[in-house]
Amino acid sequence: MTMQESAGWSAPFDPGTPPGDGVHGDGTDDLHLANNLIGNIDGSGYSQTVVQFRMHDGRGGTSRNSTVRNNIFYDCRYAAVKLPNRDNTIDGNFYAKMPAGFLRIFYPAPSECLDLAAWRRFEGYDLNGGYAGLEITLDSDALTLTVKPSPKPAFRWAEDDEDTNAQGVLAEVEPDPGVRTDYFGNTVEGKRVAGPFVMGKGEYTFHIDPRKL
Predict the structure, then answer these.
(1) Would you state the pLDDT for residue 49?
(2) What are the domain boundaries of the chain?
(3) What is the distance between the alpha carbons of residues 160 and 170, in angstroms, rounded to a whole number?
């Protein structure tokens, strides 16, 4: 297939997006994304696109019926979640250090750029999610990840606006039925905080070297 032919599979719905998404669903239906930490992203934490002419079983890739649940999105500098349509399940996610309008739906036109309150009101998404007052740092030499409460607002652009400051860190949410373990493979029973780690309200440092798991 030539480049010209492949380009016809999916017309870009947001050509101004910077590169570098955390997770991208390319015409993927029924995708399930749960209990992840997605952060330090130039583009979008999670994005989907429709692939109109990648035909299978009578249809192209519609990017519908996906589930994005109980994730932590941190410092996603374009958007946290970017969807081509409304036909997905988004709930229990927590957001920290976000730009304005960080939750986006592009079709039907005109596109929407929403903050959390509007995301809940108009779309019914993340009714069990919230903002999180977090500071997350990665030591790439020691392969440790430190998560601690932060007094800074959840918005990157509102450093002096106390009204946007998240109260608390992470609330417990109902577990995703498909994810019963934490990052280290330990089984977690009952409610838990969003993301891959079991945490309370203090400061935590996790050793994340996969060779030692």
Answers:
(1) 81
(2) 19-212
(3) 22
Region at 86 (left for phi over 0; alpha for psi -120 to 50; beta for the rest): alpha
- Residue 151 and residue 149: Cα distance in Å, rounded? 7
Give me the pLDDT at residue 110, please: 72
Tokens of 46: 């999670």
User: How distant, in Å, are the alpha carbons of 16, 167, 170 from that of 137?
Assistant: 29, 20, 17
Output the pLDDT for position 125: 94
- The confidence score (pLDDT) of residue 13 equals 53
3-class DSSP state for residue 210? helix
The pair of three-digit structure tokens given for residue 212, joined into one six-digit string: 């030692």
Q: Do residues 157 and 99 lie in contact, with contact meaning Cβ atoms separated by under 8 Å?
A: yes
Phi first, then psi: what are they for 120, rounded to 5°? -70, -45
Regions of the chain short of the pLDDT cut 50: 1-12, 157-168
Question: Which amino acid, 93?
Answer: N
